[in-house]
Amino acid sequence: MPRPPFPAGLARSRLAAGLLLAASLAPACAQSPDILALPQIDVAGTGGSLTAPSVPELRRTLERTVGSVAFVDAEAIQNRYANTLRDVLKDVPGVYVQERYGQELRLSVRGSGIARGFHLRGLELLQDGIPLNLADGSGDFYQVDPLALRAVEVYKGGNALSFGATTLGGAINFVTPTAHTAFAPTILRIDGGSFNTIRENVQVSRIAGPADLLVNGTITNSDGYRIHDTQRTQNFNANLGYVLAPGVETRFYTGLYLTDQKLPGALTLRQALTDPTRANPAAVSGNQSRKVETERIANRTSFLLDVGKLDIDSWAIHKSLYHPIFQVIDQDGWTYGVSPHWAGTFEVGGFRNETLLGLRAFAGQNSALQFLNVAGSRGAQTRNTLQSASNYEAYGENRFWFLPDVALMTGAKLFSANRTYSDKGGLPLNPAAQFANRTYEGLNPKLGLLWQVRPDLQVFGDVTRSADVPDFSDLVQQNLAGSTFVPLRAQRAWTVEAGARGRIGDLALDLTLYRADLRDELINFNPNAGLGIPAATFNAPRTRHQGVEAAASLDLARGLIAGGDALTLTQIWTHNDFRFVADPVFGNNRIAGIPPDVLRTVLAYTRPGFSLAPALDWVPLGPFSDHANTQRVPGYALLGVQAALDLAPGVTLFVDARNLTDKRTISDIAVVVNAAALGPAGPVSFYPGTGRSVFAGVRGAF
């Protein structure tokens, strides 16, 4: 029998203990005259500190980027049901995020990991500027709690160099609140609705002299839209800051993330469209699930210098995974790292100059065992391996304002990434030992211009080089040569982009056009879609990703019914043109998995204490399910509406209704090579979209 990675009772008790500690500390801080002789807490969440800047300061820093970026203030998602990263990022152009089931997603920026059938590749996730990905570059989304966010920064492509990231997709930084930036000292929330969903959240924060503390906890239970789709999660985040001396501050972050997600598996196209709530029989008989326990501790210590600021980040993440799928994957590993980085502004020959310099060293080891799956339990062992990864990076970026309103940006990253794999063998089903070692190295430069046309309007253009190193899921595959590592090269790309962002009168706009010419793109396909075997990976010699990332928001009217009300129309458009280029197998076909156009239209009416926002999500033409381009899934249009009403000062009731017409859709695909070759039923590789659903909740902020 498999050991569960965390007993349910223990999970609840650990989370409850953390929340109880927060609740007990808060009154103590509030009642002690010796501790709490302090300034009033900024309930609007606009304050900041040396280690955790305010939200306006974060936005200003992001908007100085020479390239395409986006900013999400978490205030926008407070009064709606935000359960996954799709709920957080669906209004960001250029970010493609689709739900498979529960919290499992496809997250792609500019086609990063475009055909990856599971988890994440080619995109770096950070929390408070500190990496969440494993040391081999892979990652998932389970430890990002939408109810524990204050802001989200999206740096597309090479524009993520300010974090040291130079992958094709870039980086997304999830910023959690501190006691200085929280919406309120105490927040209580309960919401739920369709599929027996219920979720509770509590956040408590206090400032005591030089110290500040925030604790946030969320418990979610849902039966899910499909059979065998149950979700049980418990998330706990906390941070403690302390001013050590004038201009010196340290902040510790800690987190505990527990997930127990049943997996309903993929279906044929016909099954997904006619009976979307069903589960794949193999998923049920194999009791396929994903049980994860993750603990995270991190620190940022900041020094305010005569010129600029020095931040020193360090982190350690422990992750335990029990994952019965085609086999039982049983893993336990650590990721750890350190990253000093300095940013400052000074004059060069009388001209303003802004410089950022950084180093990152991070590594990890993962004990990766596999067993035959016997109804979700461990059968005979098939693998006994150790995966080790290490990375050393140096990066820098400089903006030289050679005119008062025009800056020349230069930058580069030097990296070395090692991947080592050891299979001890000695098993009846795997007698031979195996070993492999590979190091990838490179230099990624960047060059661009930023023109500040006026205080609220910018124009930019840049060219960057990216490199994506294969992770262990890519490298360790069955292959005809019988080698331990598939001989994969790192994916490289040159990306050119140009765009504008800002406001012109009543119109706010964000527009970017880009083109990326790739060599050796890491392309995936599912070799046996019916059994859920992880996708195969190969290098495509030449590919091209190009597209449009556009968002526009127009203030249609003000003072319609009463003073202070407004009617706003917002349109988000992401155009994707991802193709093979003269490929020996696929010619100039489209790379499967992501539709060519994704549009979202929102008409929002707001007035003090009330908001109403109907929305239309429209995919005119669905994506191909195979690289041979023989099968395309249908497009769709989904109608939803969100509303919020203040019941009393600090108390808000909200409703979030989705897919009101109960449209049958395909949300995501496990891409195959040639769907037509798999017979009349086609591949078993489709994930149905969620049907009609309604969620509601109440939030109190005091």
Explain this structure to me?
Residues 215-660 form the TonB-dependent receptor-like beta-barrel domain. It comes from Methylobacterium isbiliense. With 702 residues, the protein is mainly β. The protein has a single domain (8-701), classed as Maltoporin, Chain A (Beta Barrel). It has six helices and 31 strands. It has helices at 8-31, 55-62, 85-89, 269-274, 281-285, 472-475, and strands at 69-73, 95-101, 104-109, 124-127, 130-131, 151-156, 170-175, 186-193, 197-208, 211-222, 231-245, 248-262, 289-304, 309-324, 327-348, 351-374, 377-403, 406-423, 434-454, 457-468, 491-504, 507-525, 536-558, 566-580, 597-607, 610-619, 636-648, 651-658, 666-669, 686-688, 693-701. The strands form four sheets. The chain has a 22-stranded antiparallel barrel. The relative contact order is 0.12.
The percentage of residues in β strands lies in over 45%
Overall 3D form: globular
Named CATH architecture: Beta Barrel
Intertermini distance: 47 Å
So how many helices? 6
Largest sheet: 22 strands, antiparallel, barrel
CATH topology call? Maltoporin, Chain A
Indicate the radius of gyration in whole angstroms.
Answer: 25 Å
Supply the helix-strand structural class.
mainly beta
At the first level of CATH, the class is Mainly Beta
Point out poorly predicted stretches.
1-45
Mean model confidence by pLDDT: 90
Number of self-contained structural domains? 1
Helix content: under 10%
At the fourth CATH level, what is the homologous superfamily? TonB-dependent receptor, beta-barrel domain
How many beta-strand runs?
31
